[in-house]
Amino acid sequence: MMDDLEQRKILSVISHAALLLSSTVVAIAVPIVILLISTDPIVQVNAREAINFSINLLIYGVILVVLAISLIGLPVAILLGCVLFVASLILPIIAIVSTATNPDTPYRYPFIWHIV
Q: CB count, 10 Å around CB of 102?
């Protein structure tokens, strides 16, 4: 049987790792399921944070599309798109490492709006 700390670590890591698996519904669905099934407050904070990060990526993506449609914003959209792509890969990895090494502390993504 798994102890609470190990379960906390695994569920928190899975919440953040879902962001790396897919940029579709899976990235949001996995943390939502974990949020609903877990009663651990740290796991719930990590799941909410992963959901917020996914929603923020979608919002930033829409903003980039709007910028790309306007001719003035195309160079800016390309640059910001590259930054967004790199951030969407690196920040979840940092979150995974943080939650795996410090399971008692929830990870907070920088530069995001907290919607959920």
A: 13
